Amino acid sequence: MLPVKTILAVVTFAVIVVAPPLRIFDTASIPKVWDLPLPKREQVASGPTIETLKAARAHVLDADVLNGKGGPLDHFYEALAHGGLVRVVHFGDSPTTGDLITADARAAMQKEFGNAGAGFLLITKPWAWYNHRGVVMDASGWQMEIAGISELKDGLYGLGGARFVGGKDAEASWLVGGGQRSLEVAFLASPGGGTFAIEADGKEIGSFDTDASEPGPGFATFALPAGSSAFRLQVTAGSVQLFGVEFQRDRNGVIYSALGVNGANVTLLSRAYNQRHLSAELRHYHPDLVVLAYGTNESGFPNFVDSTWGEEMRLAVKRIRAALPEASILLMSPMDRGELKEDGTIRTIEALPRLVEKEKGIAAELGVAFFNTYQAMGGSGTMAKWYAAEPRLVGADYIHPMPAGAKIVGELLSGALDDGYNEYKRRMQIRQETAEGTVRRSTAP
Predict the structure, then answer these.
(1) The domain that contains 172 carries what CATH number?
(2) What pLDDT was estimated at residue 435?
(3) Alpha-carbon dihedral angle through residues 247, 250, 256, 260, given to the nearest 10 degrees
(4) Cα 387–389–392 angle (5° rounding)?
């Protein structure tokens, strides 16, 4: 039997609805989800199995699923080939918030290339379904400012899109396994900033004063004792403004950070962040790959898709490129999104295929990579099949994947990246052999 917390998390996801552009999820709309009529019983009584769906999906997979193998991802692939520390930051909406899809992509990549740490986490949970697989979080005493809905509108949200303000005795804790050896706290340094302390397994290991002459990003790193797993941050004096923490191991491999903001759309990156601040944050973490996974929420607004959505995506990419000119950028299209019709059938929402094609064109135009999630998972009508599947792969909103569905998408993404990496290695091998052949010919008597 599933634990109560797991059941509550699944139920919570089932009642998430999409938000209009430029706004974050509105809790007042939750009852609308409970009122959604369900498909006729006979439609779901004998649905396909996961194995059947995988077999059917194999017929739609081709080289077009991941565009940009021959260049836009080379920086990322080169970093993997060198075998050092490789960072991925994955921006997205509610599935990313819950570490759905990202957790499975992370697991696959860390299994192949090494686990360099748990990565970036928020100070506390802005939403009940915020999650990072393998980490248990708890906190008290914090006020939150969320990108896109904050009344401050200053755009200072750190890497993860949220700022946490806490006075004396505000605290946060994380239970993290896997031999983490350092913890870095990201904060907003400011005049009169307070002090926080860090504990590992109940013993204080250091403290830091966030006071500064002017506001700006700040970072404090603490070495963690070998074998420690329970970590606690407490405000010891004044008031602090924190963004998050990053856990890292003392070995090479992949750090894959899920940066989800619930209800987000691409305007979060194109408009909500202060550009100077965002650039400073990105340059500090210096990711080798930046994934932008937006479009699901926007697909419910055809006029937005057909008018200004493309320009917002272009602006978001250009802001990332300005901060990280060498990094690889991957646009990850939304999954299929279903809607219930009057005849009781579930069909793909009308604007979504147009959005996917527009995003594909923008990626080609700007010279970044594109992963066609919609096509990879099966294309039009996939959510109807997923809702009827045994076990069910998507919730009753025909939008948010259940864990088994998220696992499919995460493995599709990691698999496509792995295929691209193998193609990169073949190109490098051919280049090396060609260069060696040229040298031999030029030195031949």
Answers:
(1) 2.60.120.1360
(2) 79
(3) 10
(4) 60
